Amino acid sequence: MAKSPVAEPSPAEIPSPTPGATEPNNDEIAVVETEDRAQEGEQQQLQPAKKTKKIIRRKKRPARVQVDPSVVKSEPPPQTGTIFNIWFNKWSGGDREDKYQSNQPAPGRCNVAQDSGYTRADRVPGSYFCLFFAMGTCHKGPECEYLHRLPGLHDLFNPNVDCFGRERFSDYRDDMGGVGSFMRQNRTLYVGRIHVTDDIEEVVARHFAEWGQIERTRVLTGRGVAFVTYTNEANAQFAKEAMSHQSLDHEEILNVRWATVDPNPLAQKREARRLEEQAAEAVRRALPAAFVAEIEGRDPEAKKRKKIEGSFGLQGYDVPDDVWHARTRQLEDTGSGAAAAPAEIEAPDQPLLLEAAASAQAVPAPVPEAPAQYGGIFSSSAVAALQGLAGGTVSTQAAPKPAGGPLVGYGSDDSD
């Protein structure tokens, strides 16, 4: 029997794959392969197979070069003062910026979304941030020795330097510019020369929010002045250099300085409360979590144990925290041991108040002891107690009798 030829489909009849199907991403390829294997396993063993998804993490991109290196000129640093101090090898004086320089726009501006990336400084812990990256004029890119990103909450530096590694001073400059002072934690910036519009508050908040989380913004609409307070001090330092001589939505040239101390009493109380909370948070991080939970009363087991062991034998008595911790610290200092401390906290031999009152009524009044035969002013029990304390060196010799007769109650110093 002759075999009939099988008709093969023409190339026009074969469906062409779609562009999305020809180049799927890695995640989709991994999911499809595992599903096909699961179906083959169900046909062979009739057992469901687990579906897995492969996730490919992208590596962090390198920092972008903000300025063409061929354009950069290697010149000595500009004169920043009026007198050159040969002892410290730097310029001194010049507490106010030049009026001409303050009216010139900045040569560049940093775009965090495009310019940030990894550099050589990411391999070195504790590296500082790039000052030229903040101003948008860094020409080294990934070869830079400083960080090209925004500061975070975990970026902590010595109070004597700022986030760029520059030394701070004990007092601010006359114009509140420059690096700043290490005597006060300043997170507020003064922004002047703002073009006054109806949406000035929204414009200021939008532009300054690029450099970190803002805690509070206050705008004086009539004067074109704003005060921007950041949550982190390093973000305020970064924003001061990034927005200096920049412009917002118009062609103005901003005047960015450090803000002075707010004279408002409410603001001072708010700042003091924030410092206390920051110190308390630092203490919480340093102590064990279980100990912190016990102190703050968030541990139910510790609270129950404290109520049982800290009653001091009195039913319904809730011991204060200071008394409880003082008693616990006293037992720890005496070296009684951790196992015996809870037992010594409770006083089983101490009677209750009602029992103490009843026993006091039943016990007869003590009979006073007769004076000693030797004629002294102390009783025999008192002399025995003194001898025990002094090691037996107390004399029991009778005191000389006064010339005016026996001891009487003192009423006055008058002779009559």
Question: Can you tell me the overall shape?
Answer: elongated
Q: Low-confidence segments, ≥5 residues, pLDDT <50?
A: 6-38, 336-348, 370-374
- Please provide the count of β strands: 6
The proportion of residues forming helix, as a percent range, comes to 25-40%
What value does the average pLDDT take?
74
CATH architecture of one domain: 2-Layer Sandwich
Q: Which CATH class of one domain?
A: Alpha Beta
Strand-residue proportion? 5-15%
- Biggest sheet character: 4 strands, antiparallel
Describe it.
- This protein is an alpha+beta fold and 416 residues long.
- Among the domains are: 83-268, Alpha-Beta Plaits (2-Layer Sandwich), CATH 3.30.70.330; 287-349, no CATH class.
- 33% of the residues lie in helices and 7% in strands.
- It contains 14 helices and six strands.
- The strands form two sheets. Strands 4-5-3-6 form a four-stranded antiparallel sheet, covered by helices on one side. It has a two-stranded antiparallel sheet with strand order 1-2.
- A hairpin with a 4-residue loop joins strand 1 (83-85) and strand 2.
- The termini are far apart.
- 13% of the residues are buried.
